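Let us walk through a complete example step by step. Step one is to write down the protein sequence. Step two is to encode the small molecule, nicotinamide-adenine-dinucleotide, as a SMILES string so that its atoms and bonds are unambiguous. Step three, shown after the inputs, is the structure prediction itself.
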Amino acid sequence: MKLENRVAVVTGAGAGIGRACAIEFAKQGARVVAADINQEGAAATAREIEAAGGTCLAEYADVSLPESVQALVSSTLRAFSAVHVLVNNAAIQVSKTVEETTVEEWNAQMAVNVGGVFLCSKYFLPHLRATRGSIVNMASVNGFFVEPMCAGYCATKAAIIGLTKAMAIDHGKEGIRVNSICPGYIDAGLAESYFQAQPDPAAARASAGKLHALWRIGRPEEVARTAVFLASDDASFVTGAAMVVDGGFGSGLPPGV
Ligand SMILES: NC(=O)c1ccc[n+]([C@@H]2O[C@H](COP(=O)([O-])OP(=O)(O)OC[C@H]3O[C@@H](n4cnc5c(N)ncnc54)[C@H](O)[C@@H]3O)[C@@H](O)[C@H]2O)c1
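Step three: the predicted structure of the complex.
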């Protein structure tokens, strides 16, 4: 097992890619903290892990609020005494142009997607330094390739890629590795919310696979296995990377198909 004797905190672990990360980390021997504003979702993740013989603490945490993140740090240390891996996965998506996006929506998206990475990293870093741990940030191919109707979301994902490289440089000498993952379309909540925002959601969902060279969208566990790799000693010389897990996004659909 690749993550034996490690403690991993996963934000947004109540659904989708975060839930898959929590489950894959537990399969690899990690004790997991599943953090989410969706308490029932986090509890369901914990139940699934415990039923398979793993260890998981479900915690309410809003990554956009400093006091909530500080409480998450405290409960993690109270339960497990140490932390080795932080997966900054929680995010929301506003599927609108800049003009359509309200100021409140813009601020909320920035606060969760970028602010959440900042706050969780800020408050967990002293404890990751103690274990020479690692951070995995969930970015997106939308940090490189933008799509219509998600301007603010794309901006947050580009920011995460930049923040990842900056943290990798600041903390590399302390033995802390910081990487991001850039998934293509994955069968999980945010992709579904993007489909729902399109004029014809069913057509958008049906054609999304063809945006990828592999002509399908990905599964959450395919992203989670990359998170395991980046958190493990197999990635001991990998830091500052923006690792695409995108089925060849942007090279799929030939004209006219
Ligand atoms: N699904 C995709 O196609 C896709 C593609 C590329 C990148 N991503 C990224 O993967 C990550 C997960 O996406 P997903 O599709 O699994 O989303 P999802 O909506 O299925 O799950 C996101 C989870 O985050 C939680 N959350 C939202 N706001 C929170 C907050 N303030 N504090 C704590 N938790 C909060 C939600 O309750 C939810 O459980 C995101 O960072 C997303 O940008 C997703």
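Step four is interpretation. The chain has one domain: 7-184+220-245.
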